[in-house]
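Batch manifest, entry 17 of 40.
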Amino acid sequence: MKERIVKSALNLFWRYGIKSVTMDDIAKELGISKRTIYQHYPDKEAILAMAIKGELSSQKCEIEKLDTFSDNPIEQMIQAADQIRTAIAHMNPTLIYDLKKYYPESWNLFQSYKNEFINKNIQGNLRHGISLGLYRSDIDVEVLSLLRIQEFEIAFDPTIYPADKFHMMHVQMQFIHHFLRGILTEKGFIHYNTIKDNSETEFIHEK
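Output type: structure tokens
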């Protein structure tokens, strides 16, 4: 039952954002009473924390798999962006904003994951690209890894990119396109210009 509650709540958060979803909504989605939910979780924030932990663990596993697909850091960077595109294709743009503004405990889980795992992963990619001569040797790995992380968050901020004017995934793709082109060497450009992902998004000729 605990897993069912978390799964149903996460589906609701994904569709409607976090702030607008109530315990009544979660109970209705499951076809159970609120009392049953409260037997397992004290409040919505406790459910949210478990949902975030599970989602981050799943995303970490998916990112770690990328190394098995290719040893080329450009391809890995593009595959990671495509993985994000697939994962958030049906996500309400307000979810990240709600998380940051109203739920500090769960936001801190996301921050720790970002600062410890994602930052380390991006830095590894950048250093690997430099060693292969695909990325410029004069880039500051620490600075640019933090920039790449912030780009992801900015795309979800409705005060910067309101959903009625910007498509969240288009913004994300613009960012990764711009980021990669800024760090590639001539050798890297040659390889980059031969790559297209397999999910209807072309990085060289962006829709």
